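# nightly structure sweep
# worker-07 picked up a monomer target from the shared queue
# config: single-sequence mode, recycle default, output format = structure tokens
# input follows
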Amino acid sequence: MKHLKMYMEPHAGERPSRVDGIYIDLRDVDSVSPAMIVDAMKSCGVDPKEPVGDLEIIALIDPEKPPRGLDLIASLWNLVVALDLKLLKTVETLRIAQEAYRSIAIRIHEGHLQYNLGIIALLVPDITIIPLRARSMARDLKIYAGAAAGRILVETCNQKPLEELLPIIDGMVLVSCS
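# output follows
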């Protein structure tokens, strides 16, 4: 489990011994500010005054309606913009996202493996996030998408290792399951 990156959503249940990144859901937010990120860091037990080093901020957004202020956040922290494929309506949005953001992740659509594979082939994301309810897709994504999927992170409610997925995933995202 040492090789796994640990990301944490603010207000997630348990806190890992180390936090490699913050996972913040901005899908229903009109604009984001540095204060929101600082609050999220504090909620995850990360001191915003300490040098953050390799700490990543993964911002989950609606690709069709991204919040304003992401460019400012990207200039202050190591930002990865995660597009929620369940909300994606046009392929043109992917092209715009590629031009707008330096680092892109995708959160796959549960239950639509071929759709996910097609988007991965078009976008070649840095990170692919597997939602809590779609864990069974992890193996298929690794087999069919391979390195094109980038790093694979799995959402989970607790730190209990996902034994069957450990050889194929790169990290976990601790989310609130209430």
